[in-house]
Design goal:
alpha+beta, 8 strands, 233 residues, 5 helices, 15% strand
Length: 233
């Protein structure tokens, strides 16, 4: 029987297909990564639940007695009260799931408010944290009972401080010193303060909301930069 000549182009076609498959396998993950990293996403924004809250100018920073402000920073606020060492579990939770993950974000700061009677207690906590955490963006502010209560009341939440002026909840404040959270509706409950009593509680809502919160500012920054470049052209 006469042998048929080999079909021309088959090897080349198979080789081309193999190369194409390899390119797809290696390139697509990279393209997807770049898309999600730099793409023009339309993130939803984290709602403003209170347009204005109290000032923190009456509080002094533990390390150097300096005063701070809320404006121009993305701020997470916690209340450690009169016995900060008894709040070590809450502090560890928010350190692990929030501060360590997000503190390198530009303009991020964590503020923990302590009653002046808890200053010595707080120093012990501070030095323990400092052994394995960069506390550059975590500020511990001290104030008297009335200043703490007044500032907490200014948040306008239905929550109350514990008897030692501490709280199990953390609060999120934007660069315009507005309180952010989730207003309640038919589908979900209102979230103004974020429960820090367990890692699961923080993961459930707070971490996601911080990501949305930061993505909002990141996209606004990119938009402003693009507009500036266009004006300069």
């Amino acid at each position: 029987m006469e042998k048929l000549p080999p079909a021309k182009g088959i090897n080349q076609t198979n080789k081309a297909k193999s190369n194409f498959v390899l390119i797809v396998l290696f390139a697509l993950p990279l393209i997807a990564y770049l898309f999600f990293l730099n793409g023009e996403h339309k993130f939803k924004t984290l709602p403003v639940v209170k347009e204005s809250i109290g000032s923190i100018e009456n509080f002094k920073r533990l390390e150097d007695n300096a005063t701070l402000q809320l404006k121009d920073s993305l701020t997470i606020i916690t209340f450690l009260g009169k016995n900060p060492y008894q709040r070590i579990g809450y502090i560890s939770n928010i350190n692990e799931k929030v501060y360590r993950k997000f503190h390198e974000f530009e303009n991020f700061q964590m503020i923990s408010i302590i009653d002046t009677s808890g200053t010595g207690d707080m120093k012990d906590v501070y030095y323990q944290l400092k052994t394995n955490t960069d506390l550059t963006d975590w500020h511990f502010l001290t104030g008297n009972d009335q200043s703490i209560q007044d500032f907490f009341n200014s948040l306008g939440t239905d929550l109350e401080l514990n008897s030692d002026l501490s709280s199990d909840y953390a609060f999120m404040v934007d660069k315009k010193a507005r309180l952010r959270g989730r207003p309640g509706n038919d589908e979900e409950d209102e979230v103004i303060g974020y429960d820090t009593s367990s890692l699961a509680a923080i993961n459930k809502t707070m971490v996601d909301d911080i990501r949305v919160f930061m993505a909002e500012y990141r996209m606004a920054f990119k938009k402003n930069r693009s507009e500036k470049i266009k004006k300069d052209e």
